[in-house]
Every structure is written in C-alpha cells, then in structure tokens.
Amino acid sequence: MILVTGGTGFVGSHLVRRLVQEKIQTRCLVRKTSSLERLPRGIEVVYGDVNDKESLKKATEDVEAVIHLVGIILEHKGATFEIIHTQGTKNLVEASREAGVKRFIYVSALGSRENAQSRYHITKWQAEQDVIKSGMEYVILRPSIMIGERGTFITMLSNVIKKAPVVPIIGGDSKVQPIYVENTVDCLIKSLTERKTTNRIFEIAGPEQITYRQLFLTLMEALGVKKPTIDIPIWLMWLPAYILENVLDKPPITTQQLIMLQEDNICDIKEMQEVFNLKLVPLRDVLKKTPVAGIAEK
C-alpha cells in the first residue's frame, strides 16, 4: 500500500492516475473540503490533514511507502509555510515511523537550503531534515517549476497575458528550468523501487534553462497573443506586494515570491538523468500536447 498526500493537487492528480495504471495499491489522504473529481477509481480515500495527528495514524496503517506532496505557495491564516511544510511534514514523518513505513518520498523544491532568503525554501529545507533523520529510507526530490495540464503557474501567467493590455514581466532576467509534471511523476514512480535513489536528494528540472522573459514570450507565442511587454524591476514591486498580501486572501504577487524571483531556479540535471534516465519534454512540446490554459484546444 502506498500513501499519497496532496493527491487532489496538481502533481498528485497526475501521480495517482499513473499509480492506478501501474496497478499499485494506493491510498490518498485528503481534507474533507477537497474535491475528489481528480481521483480515479480504485483509490482508497482517508479523510484527514497533515496537522491532524489522529487522522495520520489511520492513514499510515499497513502502508509500505509514503509520497508526500503537500505544500503551499501562498500563505493564509492557519496555513503558513511553517505550519504546512515544517510541522505538517514532521507530523507525517512521526506517524509513518510509528506505523512501520519503510520508505518516505518527499517533494521539496529547488533552492531549498538552510541559509535561503525565502521562508518558503527554509521551511522546505527544515522538512527535508525531519525526513532525513527519520530512520526510514528516503528519497527527496527538489523540482524546478512544474508545468503541465492543470498547472497553476502556467495558468496564472496565461491569465496575465490574456487580460493585461501590456504584459508585465517581473524579474525577467532570472532563469528558470521548467519540468513537465509527467517527468516529475516518472521520478516519483521510479523512486518507489529503484535502489539507486535510496537516501538521496535529487535536484530535478527540464532540459532548458530560460529567463522569465523568454518564458513569457514563449507562452505568448503558444497562446497566439501579440501585445507589448514591459519589464518591471523587482524593487518597484515591493510596496505593492506588501500592500496586496495584507489586504487580499489570494494576492497576485507576494513579498516571498519576489524574494524567490531574485535568484535563478536552475540546476545541473546530470545526476538526475544518470539515475532516472528520463525522456525530458521541452517547454514548447508541453504547451502543444497538454491543455494548459486552453492552449492545446485552440
């Protein structure tokens, strides 16, 4: 039995579909407020939360491996990076260890480190430490930005491109290395059984390192949108972002995101390819083959 947390989310919905296809017995921990539309038939559902320890006891019963996907990019009351990433992972690690789980696979984020500038990356790193010290076999994946069907990142950028009379590009010179969500799923599936992955951390990313400006232009081309663009310096966004995150539940930009935009989100994929041997899908091909923000249905 495999336990997946975050199974109704972007990565999780792709993962559980593949697990069912592979005929791997799977259980999903979901909140009562979550929609189950993305879960295929054959998935066992347990209601709970990573910060509800009693529900974690039930969720981890008779489980051999855990794939932990739960994470947030926007904070709100009762759901900070510290509560979800650090404490939530700590709770799940403890429950898994007590239940006799043998293998724990955690999806962290590229850029996670002890001395990171953003709290997002620091809390992801803290979660990694609990996984590493758990005594269970572990695999930690640190993906760059993930793209694909139902991906919130590309959908958000697409909405900006479609609605704005002039397309604003913030932090345009920073580099990113988008990875197709199904390639991330490839890594997760292989991590369940491939011994070469045991007790290792892998930085995973796509085949292309591009700037955010290039990403916007590629997406505009895929959408068939021809508009002027304007580069906006990050420093000019600090005050608006601070105001927006203090008055809106879901601000379009936050100060934590601006901090992350100041650094490249790229890595060397040699080690990833040596172990996982992926057929990586380039950005343009992802935009052609998946209905990202309506692109493929044009």
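(ticket continues) Second input and output from the same batch:
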Amino acid sequence: MKEIEKIRQYADSLRLTLLKNHPESLIHEAQIDNPGYLGFTLNLLEREIKQRQKTDLERRLTLARLPKDNDLAQYDFNHSNGISKPQLKELRELLWLDQNYNLILMGPSGTGKTYIASGLVHDAVKAGYKAYFKTMEELLTILRMKEMTGSAMNAYNRLLKANLIAIDDIMLFPMKKNEAVAFFNMVNHLHEKCSIIVTTNKSPKQWAETLDDEVLATALLDRLLYRCEVIKLDGNSYRMENRKSIFNQ
C-alpha cells in the first residue's frame, strides 16, 4: 500500500522507530481496539517515547563497556568482605554522584571491587547518567592513541563529559612517565566535575612506587581524595571460594 510506505518514510524522517518498523500491526491494533483519534495518538506517542528510551539505554550500556556480572541486586552478602547491605544500598542511591564524590575500593583480588564498581556504573547508566567502566589498561590505551585515531579521541572526549568513570585495577602495573602525566591531566580536568571510582589492590602510599614519581602521586591523590569515600574490602577471594570444576561434583 502506498499509504503504508508513506507512513514509513514520514516516520523515518521523524525518527519514529516503532511506527517505521511496525505500521501495519499498530494500525491493525487500533482498528480492533478503536481507541479514537485522541487515544490512538496518545498511545502511539507514549510507545514511541518508551521505545526511544529503551534504545537509548541499550546504547549507553553498550558504551559503558561493563563486565558480564554487574547486577548489584544479586550481590552475595553471605560472603563477608567488609561492605554491609546498608552501605551498598546507600551507594546505589547515587546521592554521592550528584555531589561529585569519588570512591576508592581497596583490597585483595577477589573481594568484590570490580563487581561493585561495575554495578554502580550500571545503576548510574540506568538512572540517566553518562557513566563508563574502564580497566586501567584500556584507559592508558585511549590516552596513548587519542592523538592518532579518531575512535580513541572520541572515547577520550566521552570520558571528559562523563558523570561517572570507574577505573579498574589502577596502579596494578608500572606506568611510563608520559602515561602517568596524561592520566593525571585527565583526572585534573575531571576534578569536581565527574565522580571517579577506583579499584586497587595497593594502598595510596604504594602508588608513588608504581608511578615512580612521589610528587605526581601526591598530586593525583590530592584530587582523588579531596571528596572521597575509601572502602577497604578484605576476606578470601570469592572466585576461589566459588570456583568451578569441569568434573562432576
């Protein structure tokens, strides 16, 4: 039908994705329910808004680059690691994010640092914030390549406009001087504009050794710790206590 094709074209021009992809079913549904002109228009616009919100959320979750496990509703409090259910609930309310507070999650491997960080990024994205999860290695790659490739520069510009950035395994490996300076410059630019979550298995005192520059480490910590909650996680590794086997139990 020519009318259907015109509807598709007009819907495409107006970015009405639902109407563009399903005009026949929407019209057939209206013919059966007979909602009237006002009801049909209102219903169509409401469904388009929901579809656009769903698509936008999916896009932002993809850009956040989250690990597979990030649903804090499934957090296992039976595994004691130093964070309580009320504390996690308060963090998930994201009031600290509106105040540009930072979080440092510090502790041995397997104590839930990455899970908590990625879960809070997931919550932030769902709440409408621009939030991203990066390993330190991924972040350093962006900083190294941003002057060379458009994709790295685009990723860097997105980070500069973020509301929340989680940096996983900071200071795990030594950094070259130019990488450390580039990282400091980014943190300095984001200072009091964006919340940063850091996961680390090293104390702040050990950062100077990793950076091989006590002055730079002090300046970096000065910005991260200014408005910051340091959460020390401990206990045994959750992964080791719940490791899987290829053999039947």
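Agent notes: The mean pLDDT is 86. The chain is about 55% helix and 10% strand. Closing as not reproducible unless the customer responds.
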